[in-house]
Amino acid sequence: MISQITRGIKISVLTGFEGTYFKNHRLHFAFSYEITIENQSKDSVQLNARHWEIYDSLNHLEIVDGEGVIGKKPVLKPGEKHTYSSGCLLTSPIGAMKGFYDMINFTTSKKFKVIVPSFKLMAPFAMN
């Protein structure tokens, strides 16, 4: 598990390999990831948006921006956690993701970014 804390918000990531399949006459590698967002600060916060940079070993970069996570904009009181699962497709068996969440602190009304640490996506058969 990969974890990082930014301004009292802890992000933890678990990854998995889901298999391969053909799409548009090309082999794709499916990966899952589970992210837990834990509010270790003293203030209530809300996740409003996400930014992802998805890399594969063939030097392809995909940028994904959007509101919330999986259709939700979770509010986390001090001590609360929000866990969600999602996934991505790569055209190679090795890759990585990193990004950030745009959040707002309800006590100060200030917006801030929470870093999602870089995490590897690797098919088991690609490991040495």
TrEMBL record:
The record's Gene Ontology biological-process terms are: error-free translesion synthesis
PROSITE patterns, per database record: APAG (PS51087)
Q: What InterPro entries does its record include?
A: ApaG_domain, ApaG_sf
Which first-to-last residue range defines the signal peptide?
A: none
| Domain ApaG: residue ranges | 3-128
User: Which SUPFAM superfamilies does the entry mention?
Assistant: ApaG-like
- What NCBIfam families does the annotation carry? PRK05461.1
- What is the name listed in the Swiss-Prot or TrEMBL entry for this protein? ApaG protein
The protein's organism comes out as Flavobacterium croceum DSM 17960
